[in-house]
Amino acid sequence: MPSSSETNNTAEYTALLLGTRAAADHGTTTLRVEGDSTLVIQQVRGIFATRSVTLRHLRDQVKLELARVGRFSLHHIDRQANAHADRLANRALDLRRTVSECGVHPDGNGCTPTAIDDRPLAPTQQPPDAPPPPPAADIEMEDPDDEDLADIDDGEVYAAMRVGPNATPQRRRRGRSGTAKKHRRQRPPRVTRHHREHRLDEALDDLHAVERSTPSDRTTVRRARRRVGRVNSAIEQQRLRHRFDTDEKACVTDILAKACATREAARTTASGGDPPAGPATPAAGSADDGTCPILGEELWRFFDSVNTPRQEFAPDAPVGAAFRSALARLPAATSCKELLTAAPSAGEVEDQLQHVRGASSPGLDGVGYDVYQHFAAQLLPALTAAFKACWTAKRVPQSWKLGVVRLLHKKGAREDPANWRPICLQQAIYKLYTGLLARRLVRWLDANDRHAPGQKGFRAVNGCGEHNFLAATLVDQARRKRRTLFEVWYDFRNAFGSVPFALLWDALARLGVPDDYVTMCKGLYESAAFVVGNAIDGTTDPIALRVGVFQGCPLSPQLFNAAISPLLFALQRLPATGVQLSGDDCPGASAYADDLKIFSGTEDGIKRQHALVADFLRWTGMAANPNKCCTMSVQRDGRGVLKTDDLQLDLAGTPIPALSMSASYTYLGIGDGFDHVRRRVELAPALKQLKDDATTLLQSGLAPWQVVKAVKTYLYPRVEYALRHLRPFQQQLEGFDRHLARGLRHLLRLPGNATAECFYAPLYNHTKKMVAVVDLAVAFEEQASDDPESSALARIAAHKRAKYAGVKRHLERQGWKVHLSALVYGSLGAVPAGNHKVLTEHLGLLKRDAKRLDRQLSVACIQSSRRIWNLHCSQHRARQHQAPGGSRAAETGGTPPRTGRR
């Protein structure tokens, strides 16, 4: 039995594994297993899944040992009936170590010692020649829980999906579990809701009675109508708050959208214009069902032309010599070859099932991730066998390669198909398989350092933040050191949808990806097709995919990064280009997926970089939109005054517009330009919108705690990214702060002098049910105390703990784990040692930040109590003259040595 350092489930699994292994070693052919853990029994049966890698490792070991036995049955018993195991568990807890004991031989004589291997097995490694479990193994599951076994298909047999030029498959509805609906119990109505409905009936009856008895008494009639209105308002408010509890995001989105529509209508009326009408431009905040107002036949012609390659890609063309040379100079990829050669294991499939998001939209079959996750334990063997078959055959079923495209409006006229972004919704089983391929490819790229330099898109880093910081650094350095700077921003036309297939496979091969993996990727796109599902007249005919990658496939981002990597590697190797930021750092390009930016400190360098980009576009057949590209030139004349200059660059004969010194180019959501004043005022519209939305939430009728949570969850993140890279005026931030603090104080009925820091504190950890209650206090130190427990700092800390004891008990009764502590500082600079623990453990600060904050608060306390400090210094000097050989407390001026004075 494991000791107290292990979890209960680990202890149950360890005991079960010891017993089953001992039975198999003794040659047992029939085994009856009894256990008091329902979770462990159901996981071994295959009904429940587990997220813990340790428990999954133990579960697989138990299954292997049970397969050695041959015939076994699993039974759940009550804990009281398992007295021997309960006694053994209590003994292990008392001894604080792992012990094992046999029920038949308590003294250990006559037993074969059985040990388990604590080292976790590699979940992705499985011997290829390992024999399968014996087919004769008979698993008896007595006392099954029928309500836990859901009917997967309700007896419906799905016919084979026809795919062809004359077949127009319709997307199925999302799959649901019929048994789950059958066993779902209807929740009884709330008491408050029933009481309000009863009050509404009484108010309506009184109104009808008043209107019949005294219709001429208008005062009484108005009073009765106001009562009905108040009850209706209370019911609507209760429904709104209940919706926030059930669907928080949709509730807040609808509240803000309605308020935005009201403001737009009022602004239009005040300006004397008519609101926009017609389906082409729906009003802000109106219900948009997502239907594209374009006929299916027109969409079919548009996407058929878009999915036709502009030219045939020639990997050995002379114009691509620089890109082939850049890839050829890469070192050999020798690490982690097994990631792209070994077939997926059951552990990888289970990890992928738990990694995906269950709310993702399903494909044509209507089966989403949530269905696979709900029946993960039952479907895991079938999914593993299917994925291994696809890996071995290096292709997937044809029905997996038919996706349904949903068009999302970007901007501009809604009647133009080019203003809609195609998002491909594919079957969940296809995305599970390609997700496995993508995760393995990413791990292989990381191990072999094959990521393109400057490419931050679709990687586990803060790519947007790093690129925007680099952009601000380039401009600040050019302004501060009075250097020249040349930049070019590129906008690729339909970047993901115009990548040639041959470029994908050629780039993967030159990066060192094994041929078998490249063949598997080819099999995903052979005879692939899609249909547009949200046309105004229904689903279109299938459209063959002859170029580009699926937008929505987990593997597509990594394939696109591989296709664009030859350009980035070639730009890195281009000599005498880039901007020298430090001794070894001289970047020349930054990319976030298809958002490319090049920069150099010389005009000749930027022109050679631009020529390389143009050669890449000619080599691959991809195209850029010159009107959406931009150049910037920062130069100075002989007197050091900035001058505007046009680089006169072009793409396919079309000139690229130049950026003036006072303008900016929107790059990764932030204005990028030389004018620092524009970067300061750029956040003003966002703060104005944020202030209006905060007012809407304050007046929405939500509960006060719901308003605070909505503000922290849906308003603050909208400006957090911009605040990291922009430098707004302090007046703008203070105006928003005062507006929000004033509204929240009024909503929460707080006094005007109440602190506003709680409005910006992070939300509680609702998942772990943990909350930290910390109060800051300053103790008045008049003289030293030999007993640290009775010092002023200790007394005020005890006072704060007693003050919040009631709050702690209230939260603990609701199941919260409360950390109650106090940050105490002395008026003479004394700092208890426990402050550092509060800052690091309870508030989660880094040690470096905790030390800095602790020092700043101590200094602030001394400065705010300057007169106390002066009096202390004068008393200290007087004691030194009067008692030079006195006690240590008199010599140090009254600060006990245990307080850690600074």
From TrEMBL:
One protein family per Pfam: RVT_1
Biased composition (Pro residues): 125-136
Region (Disordered): 101-197, 267-289, 875-902
Feature: compositional bias, Basic residues: 170-197
One GO MF term attached to the UniProt entry: nucleic acid binding
Gene3D superfamilies, sorted: Ribonuclease H-like superfamily/Ribonuclease H
Domain Reverse transcriptase: 389-672
PROSITE patterns from the UniProt entry: RT_POL
Ranges of Acidic residues composition bias in the record: 139-156
Record-given protein name: Reverse transcriptase domain-containing protein
Organism for this UniProt entry: Phytophthora ramorum
